[in-house]
Amino acid sequence: MSDDAHVDGNAVGGMMIEAFGAEMTAARSCCAECGTVAALGALLAYTRAPGDVLRCTGCGVVMLVAVARPEGVRLSLGAVRWIEPPAGPPAPAAP
Asked: Is 7:42 a contact under the CB 8 Å cutoff?
């Protein structure tokens, strides 16, 4: 696989919204292989296959595969140690 075949993880932002119900490209993720922490939108995205593959920017391991199906998006979280959703707006103060 050559380096010019990828784009950044923002390319799969729409599928992430469908899968998680929220914007996730700013969510931080940790590679289970090398420990690199990066936003999902910063991962290396390979989108020329039946599914979209997100690879670690540190070691290149497959962290996530997203496949659009008629029933909805299916995710395989291969080498994801954790995902931390981005902080949302603060909750309204109680009356």
From this structure: no
The residue ranges of DSSP E strands in the chain, in sequence order, are 7-8, 28-31, 37-39, 44-46, 52-55, 62-69, 72-76, 80-84
Question: Considering Cα of 83, then 28, then 66, then 56, what sign does the dihedral take?
Answer: negative
User: Tell me: the pLDDT tens digits for 1-54?
Assistant: 445 678 878 788 888 888 888 888 899 999 999 999 999 999 999 988 788 999
Count of CB atoms situated within 10 Å of the CB of 37: 14
Q: 10 Å Cβ neighbour count for 32?
A: 15
Q: Which residue has 């469908």 as its token pair?
A: 18
Domain ranges of the chain: 3-84
